[in-house]
Amino acid sequence: MSEEDKGSVKKAEEFLQVFKKGAEFTQELLKENERLRYQILQLEKNERPEDDGDASSETLRLRQRVEELEQQKDEILTRIRQVEEENHDFANRYVEVESENNMLANLYIASYQLHSTLDFREVLQIITEIVINLIGAEEFGILLLDEKTNKLLGVVGEGMEVTDLPQVNIGDGIIGQMAKTGENYFIDDMEDYEFDPLHPIVCIPLKIKEHVIGVIVIYKLLEQKARFADVDYELFTLLAGHAATAIFSSKLYSESERKLSTIQGFIDLLTK
User: Fold this and answer.
1) Strand 151-158's sheet: what is its strand order?
2) pLDDT of residue 16
3) Does the N-terminal or the C-terminal CB of the chain have fewer CB atoms within 10 Å?
């Protein structure tokens, strides 16, 4: 939990203490109010003609005191309502912080898994599981850059065939533009969205520093996820960086393994 979030929780606890003290003080005021009202009634009941001056003066004094207590009570009740509202806001924020921390903890574990293997297909599978479980996507794909053709080609499809994913030139359309600029894209209105391979609801470039090696394109979220939460945007950015590094490393490893295998094959032929 960040220092800012800890401060928010501490402030919420302080407000809760203020609320409790205010509630206790209000109860005392109500009791005092009731006692004074009773005294007024007793004075009025026992009032004698010869004591009119003194009794009226005492009654007036008590009535003024009751009015003061009523005013104090109203002020305290107003403050208590304000504290209740602030506590409600802090409670909601606390829940959000807990949710964010859980999500980031899960991403940390997932990123550890990403970097624990150099198998290219395994890396792609881990990324797929992260997008499903942490982001809540149902239909999506991973496109990687083919540097020979300068095109983005589909390598993974979830909820759809890889052949349904588009082949996109860098700079063409939304996907190509995001790959060119390295910026994240999110559709403005998901409710009226209709499937279009070239127009996903989300497009996240996979970047190593400023070099884009591919994109994640999402076309549909899981039924229970109606919209993106604020933490999702952070997750996308963090995921993109970890996924790009893992993909790049695994590809380099695979290529070096193939080259070593080829060289070993030539050596074996020459030595026979």
Assistant:
1) 168-169, 151-158, 137-146, 211-221, 202-208, 185-186
2) 56
3) C
Please name the helix (run of DSSP H) or strand (run of DSSP E) that holds residue 5, with its range, or none.
helix 3-46
Q: In this predicted structure, what is the pLDDT of residue 192?
A: 81
Q: Report the phi/psi class of residue 240: left, alpha or beta, with left for phi > 0 and alpha for psi in -120 to 50.
A: alpha
What is the three-state SS of the chain?
CCHHHHHHHHHHHHHHHHHHHHHHHHHHHHHHHHHHHHHHHHHHHHCCHHHHHHHHHHHHHHHHHHHHHHHHHHHHHHHHHHHHHHHHHHHHHHHHHHHHHHHHHHHHHHHHHHCCCCCHHHHHHHHHHHHHHHHCEEEEEEEEEECCCCEEEEEEEECCCHHHCCCEECCCHHHHHHHHHCCCEECCCCCCCCCCCCCCCEEEEEEECCEEEEEEEEEEECCCCCCCCHHHHHHHHHHHHHHHHHHHHHHHHHHHHHHHHHHHHHHHHHHC
C-beta neighbour count of 14 within 10 angstroms: 12
- Regions of the chain short of the pLDDT cut 50: 49
What CATH architecture does domain 120-260 belong to? 2-Layer Sandwich (3.30)
Neighbours of 100 (CB within 10 A): 18
Both tokens of 37, joined, read 């009202």
- Whole-model pTM? 0.60
Question: What residue segments make up the domains of the chain, in order of their start?
Answer: 3-111, 120-260
Q: 102-154, pLDDT tens digit by residue?
A: 666 666 766 777 778 888 899 999 999 888 888 888 999 999 999 889 999 99
